[in-house]
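HUMAN: Ready with one sample?

ASSISTANT:
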Amino acid sequence: MKIIIKKSDELVEYEMPLVGVTLLEALTYIKTKLDNTLAFSSGCRSSVCGSCSMRVNQREVLACSYKVQDGDSVEPLKNVEVLRDLVVDMDKSYAFNAKAKAYLTSNARVELDHEDEKINEIQSDCILCGSCYSACPVYAVKPDFLGPFALTRVWKYVSDKREDAKQEKINHIQTSGVWDCTLCNECTLVCPQNISSKADIEKLRMKSAQYGFMDPSFTSFGGGFGSFDGSPSF
C-alpha cells in the first residue's frame, strides 16, 4: 500500500506492507520504520481528543478513526499555521472561544432536568479538533471570523438555563460572527462528532433577532425592498 504525505512543500510517497489499518497506525509505522523525521500529532487514539485531525484526499478526518486506502494523499489542516509536516498551531482558533465568550459566565442556581440537558447535549461533544475551521470558506478569507466551533459553543451556553448573561454573549457575536457565515454546511459535513454548527448559527441568528439585531447585509439595502409597514420604498 502506498500513501502520499505533504511534508513542507514536498509530496513524499511511502510504501507499506499494511492492510486495513487506521491512518494513525500507518503514520506510526512510517515514523518508526521508514522516516523518523515525520511529524504528526496524536493523543487518545479513541476519537475524543481531536489532536490527530488532518486532511485526506482534501477532506478533514481524524487519523485515529480513518481507515487508510491505497493511494491516499495526506496533508495538514488548512487555514492554520503549519508547524511541521502534519502538525499545526491551533492556538489562534482556540482563542476565538475567549473572544466570543464561549463559556459559562454566570452560574444561576437553576435545577436542570433531563430535557434541559438534551437541549445542548450534542454541542457538549465538540472535541475542538479544528476540522470545521479547516473546511470553512469564510475563515479561509476572513481570519477574524469567530468560526464554527466557537459559535457552536456560544449556542451551548446561550441555551443553558444557568446562564444569566445571554444578551451579552449575543452582543459579542454580531461582528465577524453569526452574520458572516454563509451557511454552506461544510463544517457539519466534516465534524467527527456530527455537530451542525450551521444549525447552531441559525439558532443564534434567531436569538440575535429577538434582541433586536439583524443581518447587516440586509440593512445595507436601506429599505429598498420595502419598509417595515409593508409599503414599498423606492
